[in-house]
Amino acid sequence: MSAFLRATSGSGLPTPAATRAVCPADAVTASPILPYLGGYRPDEEDRAGLLAWSANMDYFTTISGIVQWIGREGSAALSVRSIEDVVSAGYFIPMAVRPSTTYRVEFQMKSLLSLGGEAGAGMLEYDALLPSGEEFTLLANRNHRIGSNVYLRIRGERDWEKHTYTFKTSPRARMVHLLFFREGLHNREPVIFDDIVIREVR
Hints:
about 200 residues; six-stranded mixed beta sheet; five-stranded antiparallel beta sheet; 2 helices; 11 strands; about 45% strand
């Protein structure tokens, strides 16, 4: 079964149907998968930067996202394509977390990266449960981000592989953004993520 996204145990935010989540009975689950470009969304005062970011985001969401039939077993999966002149692009899962708690993230990944391209997974940690309809601004990151880490980077052409990592939240943590990204030189082939599973480790 290719579930695409499931989250179990712990505290979380409601999961809209848009994520196509298949969750076990004990799930509290993560929230929707959202697109991001670069490290942050420009603040409203940066009109030129916000305009450029918005245009790139509009294009990115037409070429990337949840796509039917490309998953490990022919089901839906997350496809991430690159954009010229944008160093980092991907999707993130905003999720409420418990302080000082360990979580395990599992996923399947397939890539056709050209020389100079990388893809992987990471996490941003925040000290408040902030509204999360889109990527946070630079100001929100400065005021509330308390940690970050990259747990996986791969290069080259790779068939489906299962990856697993664990992280422990800090005593002040209230929210994380789980990142699934690609970086580096542009090419037209997608990086595909499937069977994302998030569990609290008890």
